[in-house]
Write a structure and sequence with these properties.
alpha+beta, 30% helix, five-stranded antiparallel beta sheet, disordered N terminus, 4 helices, 140 residues
């Protein structure tokens, strides 16, 4: 089983980033307050994106990943995200949304559609997406 590691957030708040690429070799910022997305009381929705990167055209991937985080923050209903990357090429990203309709709108965003296409054709050897309704959440 691969271990997960948190890597440097992009400074947009709401989670840690785990996209691979040359920049992630810098020392990560390890503030606990940045590791877990700040979400409201349930119910809300989550998109769980699990992927294995192909290792192809990672410079373009880095740029597009950064743009997708920036763009997601601009979308109605976006609550935040958490991301971790396994040693090697695995990653898991969880994005939180107010409603399922917000998720459907994000999936159809023009720039996001292009990123999805590139992910299927170039950047990922496999991925799986799960959409869940969060009914209960707790922690300290």
């Amino acid at each position: 089983m691969a271990s997960l590691k948190a890597v440097r957030p992009w400074g947009l708040g709401g989670g840690w980033i785990g996209w691979s690429g040359s920049w992630h070799n810098r020392e990560p910022v390890r503030r606990e307050s940045d590791m877990i997305a700040k979400t409201p009381e349930p119910p809300y929705w989550a998109v769980i994106f699990s992927a294995v990167q192909s290792g192809k055209d990672m410079a373009a991937y880095e740029g597009k990943a950064m743009r997708m985080v920036e763009l997601a923050h601009q979308q109605p209903g976006f609550l935040g995200y958490e991301t971790a990357q396994a040693e090697g090429s695995g990653e898991i990203t969880i994005c939180y949304w107010e409603t399922e309709a917000n998720i459907r709108a994000w999936k159809q965003n023009t720039e996001h559609l292009e990123a999805q296409r590139m992910g299927r054709e170039v950047w990922y050897s496999s991925y799986h997406i799960r959409i869940v309704k969060v009914e209960r959440a707790y922690g300290f």
